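Input record (one chain):
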Amino acid sequence: MNPFRRIADFFRRKPGMIGTPPTARPRAEPMPADSADHAEDFSHRWADKLDEFAAIRMEDLGIPKDQIGASDNTHGIRWCAFNPHERTGGGVTPDGRMTLDSGILNPELLDKDYGQEAGRLWRESGLQDRADALIAHEREEHRHGMSHEAALKAAPTTDLPISHRAREIARAMERGWKGGRPQR
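The corresponding structure, as predicted from the sequence alone:
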């Protein structure tokens, strides 16, 4: 059986189901109107799966294991590759440990600081392409003395095996950078 049909069938209402399907049930709390709030809310609910995704993607790209993930003592996190509390897309520590965060799910993440082209590419890209672009950026930021501007120049030509779309996002980020301090 086609795996996509299996997934679609799984989410269709089954004849023997009693009550309202889970996807049609109202949420206990209203969904946040702000896209960054919504991304963080979703990230908290799916943090375990997103953490697994981030760690595996970094490993697949060749990031050394000792540079995958970091701690967040402020929020009581001993280690994570995905931090649901942050909203910048990703981060890197001075010793090279990288994380992704809830910003990766925010469709408006790049609009303000990186311009229209980067924002459009970001919104139209899937999670893996967004992750690749941010992982490349954070790695290059560490490699270039924690310089955001140097990372913007280096990320599009990184030696990591990132997707073509991720390179397009990184190029658009470089072209569209409005200067100043990156969102943190």
